[in-house]
């Protein structure tokens, strides 16, 4: 076995060399293992037409897209991610020359554990350690549309909980409150903890009047529940639109929250 063949076969992943027209000319054993037949001389389309495994077909369709991207910029080395079942692959494609002919080389290796670790880290970065709900980072990274309404929500009488019962009890109330609100929301609505006792709820496809009615009912139930130790909350809301940013919507909702809190104090 030549040195180059030893390198190809010992590579800890998949190796394939194809003509620019798509026919396979060199593959290693790992690459062969995906197919129940010899792929030499076959294009990805040829293989797709012969194979029945839908998961392998899905992988090959991903490869077709990434092959086309590499061919579109032949002077660059292209890196991409492909998935097969629960496995993630990082792939590098580049154009090489041999004897005056051009070929596309593919090197691909398993990065599943790396992806899982990154996903876990990202999940931790986007969730509040105390309550387990989404945090401000997650809020700022999400996308919005005209069907969203942003609600700024702030606890009332929370300082009294900390002063009377201590911060551990205060933390317990924050967790209890966050989980209670979260359980009252629909699957497509999301609550975020953005500060000490401040939260933002993003509603999807529901009008401001119904949101106001729903939150008012939730607040009433909390106020009547002795387990919440007398806490309540005030809120302000603002519907998203093309001409306002998230920061602008939050600022508007925060102003309405402050007005609501003052009004509620005056009524006491």
Automatic annotation (TrEMBL):
<dbReference type="GO" id="GO:0052621">
    <property type="term" value="F:diguanylate cyclase activity"/>
</dbReference>
<dbReference type="InterPro" id="IPR043128">
    <property type="entry name" value="Rev_trsase/Diguanyl_cyclase"/>
</dbReference>
<dbReference type="Pfam" id="PF00990">
    <property type="entry name" value="GGDEF"/>
</dbReference>
<protein>
    <recommendedName>
        <fullName>diguanylate cyclase</fullName>
        <ecNumber>2.7.7.65</ecNumber>
    </recommendedName>
</protein>
<dbReference type="InterPro" id="IPR050469">
    <property type="entry name" value="Diguanylate_Cyclase"/>
</dbReference>
<dbReference type="InterPro" id="IPR029787">
    <property type="entry name" value="Nucleotide_cyclase"/>
</dbReference>
<feature type="domain" description="GGDEF">
    <location>
        <begin position="146"/>
        <end position="268"/>
    </location>
</feature>
<dbReference type="InterPro" id="IPR000160">
    <property type="entry name" value="GGDEF_dom"/>
</dbReference>
